[in-house]
Amino acid sequence: MRNHKLRVWLGIGLGAAAVVAAAVGLAPDPPQVSLLASAKTQDRVLKDIDAAVYAPAQYEAYAEAVRRAQSELSAQREKFYYSRQYLTFDRLCQGALQAGGMAERVTRESRMDFQRRTMDSRQQTSDLIASVRSRINRIGLSNPNRGSLVRAEVLLREAEILGSQNDWFEAHDRVATALSLARTAEMEVQQRSGRLTNDDLLRVWDNWVHETIHVSSRAGSKAILVVKTRSTCLLIESGRIVRSYTADLGKNGVFDKSYRGDHATPEGKYKIVKKKGAGQSKYYKALLLNYPNEQDIRDFRRARARGLIIPRSRLGGLIEIHGDGGKDKNWTEGCVALDNHDMDDLYSRVDVGTPVTIVGNYSAYDRTFR
Amino acid sequence: MVKQVLCFLLLVPLLVFSGCAKPPDQEIGQANEAMQAAVDAQSEVYASSEDAMAKKSMAEAQAEVDAVNAKFVLFRSYTNAKSLYAAAIDAANKAKEAAIVNKEIVKNEATTRSAEAKTAVDDASKALKTAPRGKDTRADIEAMNADLQGISTSLTEIDEAMAREDFMGAKNKAVSVKDRAMVIQGDIQKAKEKMGRRRK
Prior knowledge:
Strand content of chain B: under 5%
Oligomer: heterodimer
Distance between the termini of chain B: 128 Å
Strand content of chain A: 5-15%
Helix content of chain B: over 70%
Number of domains of chain B: 2
Distance between the termini of chain A: 138 Å
Mean pLDDT of chain B: 87
Number of strands of chain A: 8
Strand order of the largest sheet of chain A: 3-2-1-8-4-5-6-7
Order of helices and strands of chain B: HHHHHHH
Shape of chain A: rod-shaped
Mean pLDDT of chain A: 92
Number of strands of chain B: 0
């Protein structure tokens, strides 16, 4: 009896062990969840290097691969234990790891390229601003665009700080805005200076210069010639240049004077009508010109009639060649300013009645005067 | 005998299954809430290393749960997973606290830099107001006023960044504005000296 019970329990034990062995033996191979964990860990690295910004397609492909792997794992878990198989899951995890590696590589390359382009663009913008600033002393620039240049400089400095923080995406954004502002300012500078190379105007100006030189040569007399592009005031005697002075012009000196307060220096043929010595002018000494002449009056009336200037506008006056110049910039309200030493020299050499020709440009300047 | 065997065969699995581990749903829920709280506190921006640690802890805990879930039901134990989730909750809480503290530090720094920028612009404006005025200085003063106007626009952008709590952005812009304002101040000072010399 006892032996029988023992055999029964032994049989049960062996049967149970057989069941357990079968359960273990038929169990599916465990999934390589460590692979999925590694794939998910890549996300931290990718976020640190802004993969979503610099390689959005590759980052999305990686994220999708991780989602698919996770989804496959969940799907297998839904099944009866002995029906599960994780081969697909393992393969998807490998795919996610590869996609993560690709996303990281593309991001780093793209980031370096972006950094290089941003730095190049920053330099280009800085050079453009410097170029504009070097010209606005003589060419002038409207106040809004002056303010824009300052804003552009602030943005470039900000881009420099962002670059030092490795935030190249934001740095690029600042540089792009700065470049746009600088280009707008440059367009105005080019517009202003473009008039000085206009063919039609050049023909007119060249004629005026030739006539001035011809009359001076024929009569053996003196004449003053102001060439705006060269910021130069020339004293001509018997058709030859005898003196050359640096001249400061009106703040909007590149333009021909249209009305009072436009800060432009007039262009045309004038003469000295009065000499003001020391103490008679607030600008040291002065040579008053007969601006406006007949042509200026006709031009003003025509411009007002055509609505090119507002009806309230008045014709300017009191255009002089005076002292207190030498500032290496155009600052007057339309007059021609020389430094006091040059003013002394010119003042002593000319008289009332001396012709004064003011032109924007002279195409044969170098051939004639150098 | 048969009854005893049957009882044995029924009782053992019952005991085993009743002691079977359940997934740590409560811990997972708490960890998710803690992580969300850290994200809401902008831990990614203001406490990036603590945020990374918290996310790493979460990933490890999740991986442990995945590994245990993949096992045969009789062999599952979530003890390790529970302690990993406890560590993840702790890390997420630390990330949140660090974010709150650091955000306040950055905000204070941005406020200070913004004030410095405004002072620099004000000083430049005051310096320009005392520049000698006359027909020969009008153009210079007008040009420098235009420069100050340009920089005042940038001051507005600092205020806008502060208002939308972009304290890092506000700080960077404030530093840039102050640097530019100092350059303009220097230009004004040089111009004033030149103007003064000419008038002598």
